[in-house]
Design brief:
mainly beta; 5-stranded antiparallel beta sheet; 44% strand; globular
């Protein structure tokens, strides 16, 4: 198990890879994150809300050992911070500047099976009135087309993070979070395009509407066609991870199990990775002492899960996690997350390369 620094700069706050995405092309892996400024007395997240966050990408060509950081080249639909409205003052929120004219129209269908294809989803806020959109790259995240608006489907708002399954040249299923009926976040659901992104159809809700929240779906398709979705759950002060499955192509869902019964104070999202031997890996941040990054393995398609694997337990406090994981051709995993060594220190992006 080896740890590497992806991005780190004194006085800065780098965070939340799960909000942006990870894309693997063999040993070439690209991960998205955002960078703002550190402000230690801000509470849970030590970020300066009076300064903008800027979206960045980090690229490795050697499977996670060395990284080069580059700016996200996609066009913002407004003025503000991408997928970070909840972390900045209202004057810096992108949601306040959006209109129907902020978005482009996708005029040619996307070939989702192109080996260099990537999609990144983005959003304004988290609840009532939030809008979401997507970008397309056909050159391994070097350039991006868009932004293209995701329809609202009659919901109070959609808060999209990047999670999708490519199912054909023109067919792709997206897993998103909608605001609940009361306008608060959130409830997971899925949509599908059959025409290369020109249009989308609502498929189904994943689970019942919670009194707390069920957000940030992470999906995977098993070899037998079953689709699994793990979600971040909260009720009151309790935070955990639930798993759902669909055997009818996302038309209906059933609750499977609770792979992680506690993700710590504030909670953390899961990410799912199908391994070469058919096992399933879940990685997530843990926000109680000892703060860190953890994983579990399932040998039976998600029905049961092994003991926790401690990837790291040396975090300075609970302001960490939000991992995304990519599978290397040699079977090792590259898990990328945000981290801190001490509460007053910068938040940085790190990667752990490990054998599941």
């Amino acid at each position: 198990m080896d740890h590497y620094t992806v991005y780190r700069e004194e006085g800065r706050f780098a965070g939340w890879p799960a909000n942006y995405g990870i894309w693997g092309f063999g040993y070439e892996i690209v991960v998205g994150f955002t960078v703002g400024y550190l402000k230690v007395d801000e509470g849970f997240h030590a970020r300066d809300r009076s300064k903008p966050f800027v979206t960045m990408l980090a690229r490795t060509l050697d499977g996670g050992e060395t990284w080069q950081v580059e700016s996200f080249s996609g066009r913002l639909p407004g003025h503000g911070s991408l997928s970070a409205d909840e972390h900045v003052d209202e004057s810096l929120a992108i949601g306040r500047t959006l209109s129907e004219n902020s978005f482009e129209r996708l005029r040619q269908p996307v070939d989702f099976k192109d080996p260099d294809f990537s999609m990144m989803c983005a959003r304004s806020g988290l609840g009532q009135g939030s809008r979401s959109w997507f970008y397309i790259s056909m050159d391994r995240c070097k350039t991006w087309r868009g932004p293209y608006l995701i329809p609202g489907f009659g919901t109070p708002g959609i808060a999209a993070r990047t999670d999708y399954i490519v199912e054909g040249r023109r067919r792709c299923t997206l897993f998103l979070t909608a605001a609940k009926g009361n306008g608060h976040e959130g409830r997971p659901f899925c949509i599908r395009t059959e025409d290369g992104g020109l249009s989308f159809n609502f498929l189904s809700w994943i689970g019942e509407e919670p009194s707390g929240f069920s957000i940030m779906p992470a999906s995977v398709r098993l070899g037998d066609g079953t689709i699994l979705v793990a979600v971040r759950r909260r009720e009151g002060e309790k935070n955990w991870i639930e798993l759902y499955s669909s055997i009818d192509d996302c038309q209906t869902w059933r609750f499977v199990t609770t792979p992680v019964e506690n993700t710590g104070s504030g909670g953390n999202p899961p990410t799912l990775t199908l391994l070469k031997d058919g096992r399933l890996c879940m990685t997530y941040g843990f926000r109680d002492p000892p703060y860190g990054i953890r994983a579990r393995i399932s040998n039976d398609g998600g029905g049961s899960w092994g003991e926790e694997i401690m990837l790291r337990d040396d975090g300075g406090n609970h302001d960490l996690g939000y991992p995304r994981t990519a599978l290397r051709p040699d079977g090792r995993l590259v898990t990328v997350y945000y981290f801190n060594d001490k509460p007053e220190g910068e938040r940085y992006i790190a990667a752990t390369v490990w054998e599941p």
